[in-house]
Amino acid sequence: MSQDRYDLAIIGSGIVGLAHAWSAAERGLRVIVFDRSHRPEGASIRNFGMVWPIGQSAGFNLQSALLSRDRWLFLKENSDIWVNPCGSLHLAHAADEWAVLNEFAEDAQENGYDCRLLNREETLSKSKGVNSEGLRGSLWSPTELCVDPRAALSQLPPWLEASHQVQFQFETHISQVKSGVIQAANGQSWRAEKTLICNGADFQSLFPDFFENSPMTRCKLQMMATGPQPKNWRVGPHLASGLTLRHYQNFESCPSLESVKRRFGEENPLFDQFGIHVMASQGSDGSIILGDSHEYDDDIDPFRKSVIDEIILKEAKRIFQLENWTITRRWDGIYAKTPGESHYSRAITKNVRVFTGLGGAGMTMSFGLAEHYWNHWLAASSLFNEESETELKITAGIGEAL
Ligand SMILES: Cc1cc2nc3c(=O)[nH]c(=O)nc-3n(C[C@H](O)[C@H](O)[C@H](O)COP(=O)(O)OP(=O)(O)OC[C@H]3O[C@@H](n4cnc5c(N)ncnc54)[C@H](O)[C@@H]3O)c2cc1C
Question: Is the pTM of this model over 0.70?
Answer without folding.
Answer: yes
